[in-house]
Amino acid sequence: MRIAMIGARGIPHTYSGNEEFFRNIAPRLVARGHEVIVYCRSGHFTDRSPTWHGVRRVFYPAPEHKSGGQFIHALLAAIDASVRRPDIVYIHTLPSAPHSIIPWITGNRVVVNVDGMDWARDKWGRIGKGYLRTAARIALRTASGVITDAEAMRDYYRTHFGRDVYCIPYGADIEASTHPEILAQYGLTPGDYYLIASRLVPENNPDLIVEAFTRTDSKRKLVVAGGANFSSPWVERLHATSDARVVFLGHVGNREHIKELHCNSYAYVHGHSLGGTNPSLLKALGYGNCILALDTPFNHEVLTGKTGIAYGRFFSRSVSAASDALAEIDRDPAAAAHYRLIAPDRIREAYSHDFITGEYERVFTEILRGVREPAPAAIGASGPAPRPTPTAPV
Predict the structure, then answer these.
(1) Whose C-alpha in 26, 74, 119, 269 is 20 to 30 A from the C-alpha of 98?
(2) Could you tell me if 142 and 119 are in contact, meaning their C-beta atoms sit under 8 angstroms apart?
(3) Within the chain, which residue ranges are assigned CATH 3.40.50.2000?
């Protein structure tokens, strides 16, 4: 198959889970004999060689703006892909989804990964939320296939839109520490810190976690690896903590450094409240983290194995609950060590990149054969999952 992929900053890039997804899936599709084009935002790359690990890269410029940049780049990419006429035009996440109209008009088969409930994210204003609601409707109208990344999200689309979309989660690698000396560059030593590794946006709740940590008497640090591509009073308040144990590293773009920060942390704290199967959470499992996660249907889906094994602990969305969870695991290094030991097993069980690549290959093949929707319980289904409670319905 010839597959064009739209919707990330490009390949290889480390800004978010979207870029990690492209970096892992696209070369694997090439290795299986397919031709893959990934559209890249030229401003993010100094090396603009035409291929990377067999993946063809096409560069277009875009303004570096939290919403306008992606919109313009996806528009240019969709026009280009419609001219090239690949077998599959794959569009990743709702901000890029409205451009599915272009290849749809020209008769291309379009697959859209809606990812999550982007319209519920606090970083968007009224206009942005309205745009994303419209994007969901456009994707459901124009796409030959729609993909979501969690059973709870799939159930949401069944219930609210009457369409049984495909469910394919993200994947992760299993890796161990190889260069712990990297931590010295950040003033850290193995096991002496908790880690947050995510974009600094309200729905990931870094402010709640920081405040909860400051209420503990832990001798460890809280390391925040992640940045925000926007400025606001909320971002300023987040950085204004006076607790010297809280360390903000900003965006860490070096994958080896991210790996060492994960592999050597005492525990990883995951506050994501929206989206489905979160790539950051899977990455933490693959790196062998002890995980404390916000109690949501999506996080439960990831951290509860097929046999009912819990691969982490949960806290409710309150400062006191998060503080209690941090204090409890801080006093119990044996439990933390247990979770670190079993974490990679969950990736082996359900979230390997090779398995996920095979699922995408299967969906693309079905779409080319004219299948518009999956048969009941087709991809990754294990019965309806608990329905998420969105903060803003479509």
Answers:
(1) 26
(2) no
(3) 2-171+352-368, 180-350
Alpha carbon distances (Å) from 77 to 136, 180, 248: 19, 40, 35
Q: What is the pLDDT of residues 196-214, one digit of tens each?
A: 998 888 889 999 999 999 9
Q: Which two tokens stand for residue 342?
A: 């079993």
**What are the distances in angstroms from CA 115 to CA 152, 167, 174, 203, 224?**
12, 10, 23, 15, 24
Superfamily in which the 2-171+352-368 domain is placed by CATH: Glycogen Phosphorylase B; (3.40.50.2000)
Does the pTM exceed 0.85?
A: no
Model confidence band, residue 289 (pLDDT cutoffs 50, 70, 90): very high
| Residue type at 36 in one-letter notation | V
C-alpha distances out from residue 250 to 54, 197, 224, 258, Å: 31, 10, 7, 12
Backbone angles phi, psi at 99, to 5 degrees: -75, -5
pLDDT of residue 388: 36
Task: Give residue-wise pLDDT tens across range 166-180.
Answer: 999 999 999 999 999
Closest CA relative to residue 381, chosen from 88, 157, 104, 55: 157
CATH architecture of the domain 180-350 equals: 3-Layer(aba) Sandwich (3.40)
How does strand 2-6 pair with strand 193-197? unpaired
- Report helix, strand or coil for 229: coil
Lay out the sheet containing 291-294: strands in order across: 246-250, 221-225, 193-197, 267-270, 291-294, 313-315
